[in-house]
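The instructor's notes for this session suggest beginning with a concrete chain rather than abstract definitions. Hand out the sequence below and ask the class to guess, before any prediction is shown, which regions might be ordered.
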Amino acid sequence: MEHRIPRFTLDGVPDAEVTVHPFATEDDLGLKLTRFRHDHGGDGGHGAGGGDEVDGRADGDVVLLLHGLTSSSDIFVMPEITNLVTFLHRNGFADVWTLDFRMSSHFPYDIETRGSTLDDIAHYDYPPALAEIRRHVGERRIHVIAHCLGSLSFSMSLFGGAVDGIASLVCNSVALTPRVPAWSKVKLSFGATAFEYLLGLPYIDPRFSDAPPFSRRWLLAKAVSAFHPECREPACHMQSFMWGSGRPAMYVHRNLARETHTHERLADLNGATGVQYYRHVNKMVRAGRAVKCDLDDPRHVGLPEDYLERAAEIGTPILLLTGDRNNVFADSNIACHRILDKAAPGRHELQILPGYGHIDPIIGKNAHIDVFPRMIDFIKRQAGVSEPWQPASMRT
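After discussion, reveal the predicted structure:
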C-alpha cells in the first residue's frame, strides 16, 4: 500500500526548530505564523541557539512565505520534495516564517458565508503579521516570497501603503495585473452566481468526488472529470475547473512527484473555497489591474482605488516569476513587469520558467533545481552579498 503523507505534516522540516505564533486581525479573525529556525552549525545562522540578534549578512535576514487561495503553508514544507523552507535553510537563510492568513485551508474561513475580499487581506492580515515578526526579529531585513492570490494581495498591501519596510518581494504567477485565459474569464463572469444561486453550493471542494453518489457535489465532480481525460485523479480535475483553463490547469503533470499527484495529497495541499474571492478577481481582470472591490466600503478608505497609482514610489525590488505554461494567470507577471518597469526602470525583474505552470514552481519535484535558486539569487543580491546568477538550462 502506498505511503500516506499525513495532513498538515511538518515531516518535511525535521531539522528545524518550529514555533507557532497566533495573532488576531483588526476584523477579529485568528491567524497564525509558523517560524522555522535552523542552526547552520556555527556559520552565523540564527538557529535554535542563535537568538534574535541583528546580523548584517544574508543568513541573518528573514524570509516570509505566503501561500495562495485554497492552499496553506503546507506547500512550503512538503516532505516528498526538497521544499522551499529546507532549501532556504540550506542556502544561508536560517530564519524562515510562513503565514497562514485567512485564505489558508487550515482555517474554516474560506467556506463560511462571511465574504472576504482581497482588500480585507491587504488591510487586515499582513500588517499584524509583520508586526508579530518584527517583535521577534527586530530590524533585520525581511524578504517575502509569495504565490498566487497571496502574491496579489501582498502586492496590494505593499503598493497600497498598508505595509512597508520589505527588503525584497518574489511574486510567483501573478502580482498586480491579473490576466486569465478566455475560458477562465467566462467562469469568472458567471461562476460565482451559478454556484450560489443555481447549483446551491456554497463552496467548491477538490474532494467532491467523495460525496454521496448522485448528490449535487458528486455529479459535478463526475461532469468535470468527463472533460479531463489527462489523468485519473478527480481532485486534479476539480482544481483545473476551480482555477484555470487547461488539462491540467494548475501545473504540468511531469513536474510533480508521484506522491504529490494523488487524490488525497492534492486535496490536502489545495482545499475547498467559497466563491467570494472570484468576484474580486473578476473585477480586476476586467480592469486589467488590481483595484479595490467596493469603493463605498468605509473600512478600506485608506486603500487606493487603483493599487498601481503609486508604482513609481515603491522602493521594494520585485522579482516576477511565471511559468511559460501558466494556465491560471497566463502572462499576468509579464504584463505587470512591463508596467512596473515603465514606472521605475530597472528596479524590478522578470523571469520566465520554461516548462512550468502555475503552482509547480513551488511544489514541483525539481523546483529546488529549476526555480528556488532564482529566488535565492534575487534575495541575496538585494542583500548585497552575491553577483547576478546565470541560470543553467532549464529542465523541460
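Then share the key points. Strands lie at 17-24, 30-37, 62-66, 95-100, 142-147, 168-172, 318-323, 349-353. Residues 42-57, 388-396 have pLDDT under 50 and may be disordered.
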